[in-house]
Amino acid sequence: MDAARRFIDCYWTDSYATLNEDMRDAKTALQEWAQARKGTPVYKLVHREGPDHAPRFVVQVTVKDQEPLTGEGGSKREAEQDAAKKMLAKVLTP
After folding, report:
1. pLDDT digit string (tens) for 43-68?
2. How far apart are the first and last CA of the chain?
3. N or C: which end of the chain has fewer CB within 10 A?
4. Which CATH number is 24-92 given?
5. What is the DSSP string of 21-84?
6. Paired residues of 61 in beta bridges
7. Structural domain boundaries of the chain?
8. Rounded CA gap, 65 and 36, in Å?
9. pLDDT digits (tens, 9 = 90+) for 71-92
């Protein structure tokens, strides 16, 4: 038992220390926040540029009673995550 305890302390203590942090991605967190207020985020592709091997996407997220915000990324998913992260920062800041 002592060997198991030392192993866990050595290799898992740091991982367990971060379990209290929000482990959801930004889109999931925004979805839950919006649904609690009777709404749903809407994502819209605003712009795509660049070659097929290195595209850049701009996505707009709209949430009820909030000004739309945009996010950018190398994929639509990255751009949506960026937009969601920005919207969460806006709506969760007092």
Report:
1. 999 999 999 999 999 999 999 999 99
2. 48
3. C
4. 3.30.160.20
5. S--S-HHHHHHHHHHTTT---EEEEEEEES-TTS-EEEEEEE-TTS--EEEEESSHHHHHHHHH
6. 43, 69
7. 24-92
8. 13
9. 999 999 999 999 999 999 999 8
